[in-house]
Write a structure and sequence with these properties.
The chain is an alpha+beta fold. It contains three helices and six strands; from the N terminus they run E-H-H-E-E-E-E-E-H. Strands 1, 2, 3, 4, 5 and 6 form a six-stranded antiparallel β-sheet that branches.
Length: 156
């Protein structure tokens, strides 16, 4: 099955409770929106709620980096795209972009490193072969995407 590159799995509306005293979405809620996009991404690759309920496996974020490119405000609808950057038997490197739906601009980006964890022992463990195969198929589509200047950024 061909995989879209990038994946477009999540959108939502910015609600009043997410707005700070500057009149735009507070930084904490960018993380929330990206977390929702990550949940959709993990469901797509087979690591979603059903996986967690059927096994002792889950994923933990161990690092993430957000860029804030242009503000969003109450009532704006945003959509997130997701791409797989890399993976190995225990780690998944993924990247997400948040776009303002009506105006089309890039509002923010978020890069994650996640680990596969066996919750019964609370340790990093190998991803199941079926998930590794699915990630490989997604990677084959996503490695053809042009590089992004926002992946691998450092604060300077």
């Amino acid at each position: 099955m061909p995989h879209p590159a990038p994946l477009e799995l999540w959108s939502e509306t910015i609600v009043p409770d997410w707005i700070d005293y500057n009149g735009h979405m507070n930084v904490a809620y960018y993380t929330l929106v990206f977390d929702h996009a990550v949940d959709a991404f993990f469901t797509y690759v087979g690591l979603g709620r059903d996986y967690r309920e059927a096994t002792t496996g889950s994923s933990f974020a161990v690092e993430h980096h957000i860029t804030y490119n242009q503000e969003v405000v109450e009532g704006d609808v945003v959509r997130c795209t997701s791409r797989l950057v890399g993976f190995d038997e225990k780690r998944i490197h993924h990247y997400h972009e948040m776009y303002h739906v009506a105006d089309g601009y890039l509002a923010a980006t978020c890069e994650f490193l996640s680990l596969h964890v066996d919750l019964s022992i609370r340790r990093v463990t190998k991803l199941p072969d079926a998930i590794l195969e699915r990630l490989g198929a997604v990677m084959a589509a996503h490695e053809k995407l042009p590089p992004s200047d926002n992946i691998g950024r450092v604060i300077k």
